[in-house]
Amino acid sequence: MAKRASFADEDYWGRPLPGFGDARARVIVLGLAPAAHGGNRTGRIFTGDRSGDWLFRALHRAGYANQPTSVSRDDGLRLRDCYVCAAVRCAPPANRPTPQERDNCLPYFVRELELLERASVIVCLGSFAWDAALRAVGGVRPKPRFTHLSEALAGRFVLLGSYHPSQQNTFTGKLTEPMLDAVFARAKALSSGHT
Length: 195
Fold this sequence. Notes:
Elements (H helix, E strand, L loop, with lengths): L19 E2 L5 E5 L7 H4 L7 H12 L20 E5 L12 H17 L5 E5 L1 H10 L14 E4 L2 E6 L4 H6 L4 H15 L4
Parallel strand pairs: 2-3, 2-4, 4-6
Antiparallel strand pairs: 1-3, 5-6
Helix pairs in contact: 2-6, 3-4
């Protein structure tokens, strides 16, 4: 993937990104992969791109973030009771991660799940994240189908499906802000035991 001209002088290409957020989080948000000119450029997942704009506004409205924007690693954003990460840790070529990349990165997500001892809900942004979460928790049979607001019990976790806040989904109206708000309202209810 070629660098965009406006970022030609930036030295950020190909760095893997860790997750970030509250170490005592009950809710994990699992995305697809860092955006090449968003999280990969800024050094924090979902930061500095339009998908992140949607995500952090929703997290702020739900009370999980102290501010509705995320533009850099040192912008003051703090997450409460929420941890954000991705199934693939590096920006994939042509913005399409392969199953092999997902499987190569899977041990990092498995380790995060072990460390996030209080977590009980995984919000999966898209079917790729849904599949990665199922693999990380050891699979569920029969495999639950991904849809927006789908739920599946997987070990100690409830997987909660959401369409990804990509421009493809937000520009077409497949995902709206009220739909994303409904996901985080449901995540809050599930994580606090109010089902």
